[in-house]
Amino acid sequence: MITVAALYQFTRFDDPATLRAPLLALCEAEGVRGTLLLAHEGINGTIAGTPAGIDAVLAHIRGLPGCAGIDWKESAADAMPFGRMKVRLKREIVTMGEPDVDPRAGTGHYVEAKDWNALISAPDVVVIDTRNDYEVGIGSFAGAVDPGTRSFREFPGWWRENAGHFDGKRIAMFCTGGIRCEKSTNFLLQEGVTDVFHLKGGILKYLEEVPEAESLWQGECFVFDERVSVGHGLTPGKHGLCRACRRPLTEAGRHHADYEEGVSCAACRGEYSDADRARFRERQRQSDLARKRGAAHLGADSAPSQRARKSLSFWNRAGATRDQS
């Protein structure tokens, strides 16, 4: 079994570029793969490897400035869910595009997984899913508001346009692993909302700790690795992945007339040109040849479009990290 660790920490890195090479070297030495993002505001990512390899990388990260108390969420995979290891430098570890937002200055009230059902069942609470549309499409909490955003950058605009609908309500927000809610709750506090709450540890912690018989979660949770989705107990889900747009696929979606492996699905068929699809087809051909040789084709998990590149930001992908949390 492979251990998968999703992590983030908002802290101040004066020079994140100096942290990159030692972190990458350690991950490669330990056989750990995935994606880690470094920015002045902290670290974020998902990595996978042997338990010993993950422990070594986490020990290194805990030694970084402000990361001694970093929290992470672990799950298991039957096979390595990432093709390679990437440590990237970013402006933000989860991209919101609001320069004044700083979770270190304050966030909403954390709500433990065991207490979440009671909160979101209260009549004066509005529950908002802060994830992107393709994530919400395969699962969410019953009754949650879906902003319909294609990227986390759109969330502030959506809130400002719709805030009046939620006057007099307490706001409870959630995301995959918690990172987006760190920013979105700080943002709402700056917008003058006082009763703001968010699910500590995100959906992943909820699915890990809350028994399915007591759960208010419906569907599966999109994750940013080759498992694609997980269910209760963090067991791998049933969704596949379109390699063109990085959206999740149901079994029915894989049998749709517009689905071509590595090239298109019903959701993205009209988003790319014939030239794009020709490139994707060649990439898929190379991937198939590499698989037959028993080798990994590193281009197979590359994001071919602006949408896919955004989704690879984690946890936002992800790929390893696509706005994941």
Strand content: 15-25%
Helix content: 25-40%
Number of separate strands: 15
Spatial arrangement of strands, main beta sheet: 4-1-3-2-5
Which geometry do the CA atoms define? globular
Radius of gyration: 19 Å
Number of helices: 10
- State the secondary-structure class: alpha/beta
Amino- and carboxy-terminal Cα gap: 23 Å
Low-pLDDT residue intervals, each spanning 5 or more residues: 298-324
Instruction: Tell me the series of helices and strands, N- to C-terminal.
Output: EHEEHEEEHEHEHEHEHEEEEEHHH
Largest sheet: 5 strands, mixed
Average pLDDT taken over every residue: 90
Oligomer: single chain
Topology, element by element:
Blueprint: E1 2-10, H1 17-29, E2 33-39, E3 42-49, H2 51-62, E4 71-77, E5 85-89, E6 109-111, H3 113-120, E7 125-129, H4 133-136, E8 139-141, H5 155-162, E9 170-174, H6 179-190, E10 196-199, H7 202-209, E11 217-219, E12 221-222, E13 229-230, E14 240-241, E15 248-249, H8 251-254, H9 274-293, H10 306-311
Parallel strand pairs: 2-5, 6-10, 7-9, 9-10
Antiparallel strand pairs: 1-3, 1-4, 2-3, 8-11, 12-13, 14-15
What does this structure look like?
The protein has 325 residues and is an alpha/beta fold. 29% of the residues lie in helices and 21% in strands. The protein is built from ten helices and 15 strands. The protein has helices at residues 17-29, 51-62, 113-120, 133-136, 155-162, 179-190, 202-209, 251-254, 274-293, 306-311; strands at residues 2-10, 33-39, 42-49, 71-77, 85-89, 109-111, 125-129, 139-141, 170-174, 196-199, 217-219, 221-222, 229-230, 240-241, 248-249. The strands form five sheets. It has a five-stranded mixed beta sheet with strand order 4-1-3-2-5. A four-stranded parallel beta sheet has the order 6-10-9-7.
